[in-house]
Amino acid sequence: MRxxxxxxxxxxxxxxxxxxxxxxxxxxxxxxxxxxESFFNKNNDSxxxxxxxxATSATDSLKIAMAYTYMGIIQAYEGDHYGGQESLLxxxxxxxxxxxxxxxxxxxxxxxxxxxCLDLKNYEAAIDYYRQAxxxxxxxxxxxxxxxxxxxxxxxxxxxxQAIDMYKSLLAKSKDKKKEYARVxxxxxxxxxxxxxxxxxxxxxxRALQIRRxxxxxxxxxxxxAHLSDYYSLSLPDSALYYAVRRYEIAREMNSPDDEVEALxxxxxxxxxxxxxxxxxxxxxxxxxxxxxxxAAKNQFALIRxxxxxSKADNLQLQKDNAQRKTQLVIQRFVLVxxxxxxxxxxxxxxxxxxxxxxQIEFKSRQTIQENQxxxxxxxxxxxxxxxxxxxxxxxxxxxxxxxxxxxxxxxLYERSRDISYETPTISTIPFPDKIDxxxxxxSSDHIKVLIFGNGPVLWNRINTQIQHEVEHILQELMVNxxxxxxxxxxxxxxxxxxDQVQILYTDNGxxxxxQVTYGNGLKNTETRIKRIGGKYRFEHPVKGVKIHISFPIA
Length: 555
Hints:
Layout: H1 3-21, H2 33-39, H3 44-57, H4 61-77, H5 81-92, H6 100-119, H7 123-134, H8 140-157, H9 160-173, H10 178-195, H11 202-214, H12 218-232, H13 237-254, H14 257-270, H15 276-342, H16 345-397, H17 403-417, H18 432-441, E1 449-453, H19 457-460, H20 465-486, E2 490-498, E3 501-508, H21 521-532, E4 536-540, E5 546-553
Parallel strand pairs: 1-2
Antiparallel strand pairs: 2-3, 3-5, 4-5
């Protein structure tokens, strides 16, 4: 269950509070925040488009900040966590903590940044952002939700004592609010059980469930069924299966693909073998659909920003041309007045010469500008527009999109577009060892155990960012192939440094790779990446599974 779905109501409430608290200027023509808000949570592509227009054209700093906040929430909700993080941090640069009217928006930003960091398992940063949000909260209900986020982060982090202490305090504060009390009680019981597997959490979980049933709290029921299914998994498998089925029904009722995937994962674990097939087919369909939708959303957001930037550049040029025409008209009128006043042949001659000279200069300037614009327009069209169009065509018309092919196309487009880009690339704030851990652990599941050895800062501090980038994609390709084809239940990746070489050993216990394997695009790209960093690779074919040795020089 995504943390962002829990906190979304407080973010929406905070942003609406920002809207009501800010001073309203005289009516102007679009774009406005209200236009984007009318599409928000209904058609997020349109909402993102209008918020982006406000962010790039408004002059009021609070409006710009709110537009970026909305954009960040949309991006995070659609699965683009890093894009959402970038938009939210951009919003913070337009806000002043000393201005009362900015504080609601500051709270919203820090809340969503906390949610994103929690999704990315960056727990320390999540706690820090949640505590930053607390500084700007003025309502008790909002404070309870923020504190619940901190407690949940401690639970995910494994710091159960801290989480339990916070939940105890929250239970006392939320007794008069049934929904909030049920949420805190359910989380409290689950945390106590996670700390001590003998703790009898059943009655408290059942009590929270009953409160949620009585108040028809659909999202709360989803969480309660998940907690109860986990709790009974070992002691009462039949009960665990019952609650997993109920959670699956609720997830479908909410029309929440992410929750449905989690419910299906639990059902696959608990169900008898003769009932697994329909669950597994639905699970595969949903995971592929969700990933495709997330990739499409990221591309769509990038395209919206590109089109908006191009439109803004065209408008600026049009304004410049209009200003030049107005200036020229003023000059012409001034010259006419001088001609009428002086009526002298000498004055007329001087004016005509001066005018001719200005026209020549303006003509040459326009020529130069037009030539530069033509060159730039051709480069943008050839490199970016055509590339984006091909990607859009693939996404729109192909019934099935090859993920690896799509990634390769986007990478090629990125490399080519650098020739016409002058912005400094965004540098990731996540340490590389953490990125590798997050990447590899994302393939772990109830059926696949992923073991990682030797992945630490000492190893990677001597490796430049370009090689790190290649290594990340190499590992991702290996794990994707494992997930798709190997049928492995255990994967081990070991990193070490020997004789100025980084050694990577990949091992799994799957069905292995035939000795005369025909490489697809993904493995061919992996081979190219390894050679690009001066590396070597070697396959071993044990009795079961596969071993892959990869090495490359540290320099």
